[in-house]
Amino acid sequence: MRSVLFLQLRAVELLKEDMAPTNKKRSKPTRPDPPQQTRLWLMYPPRLIKEPLLWKLGHKFPVITNIRQASVTDEIGIVSLELDGKRSAINAAIKWLEKLGVSVEPVEINVIES
Fold first, then answer.
1. Domain made up of 35-106: CATH architecture
2. Diameter of the chain by CA atoms?
3. What is the dihedral of CA 41, 42, 46, 51, to 10 degrees?
4. What pTM value is reported for the model?
5. Per-residue exposure over 10-43, b if at least 16 CB sit within 10 Å of its own CB, e if not
6. CA-closest candidate to residue 100, choices 54, 37, 40
7. How does pLDDT run across 19-75, given as a tens digit for each residue?
8. Where are the extended beta strands (E) located within the chain?
9. Pairwise CA distance, residues 19 & 14, whole Å
10. Which of 77, 81, 80 is nearest to 45 (CA)?
């Protein structure tokens, strides 16, 4: 009888602990970070034309780079770049390029299906 009463009291204590408010912040549910493919136009200023930025980008971020088109002169470099990877990695890579002074714009693709 004594052990049954002890178990009941212990159960009440455990319930009170579970119901007691805590100061811990609840973690936010994490959003999925799906893989994606993004096409961008990069416009390099003259001071960055000779820098191997796409090589650095591929080593610094977990993305796959694919140069689709490029035109480089002494005054400007224009590159059409395709990036494959997780959305967060692509966004971080874009921010890094912009921080360096590269102008980054999305490629507008108009496809007519037949």
1. 2-Layer Sandwich (3.30)
2. 93
3. -140
4. 0.67
5. eeeeeeeeeeeeeeeeeeeeeeeeeeeebebbbe
6. 54
7. 665 565 666 667 778 889 999 999 999 999 999 999 999 999 999 999 999 999 988
8. 35-44, 64-72, 77-86, 103-106
9. 9
10. 77
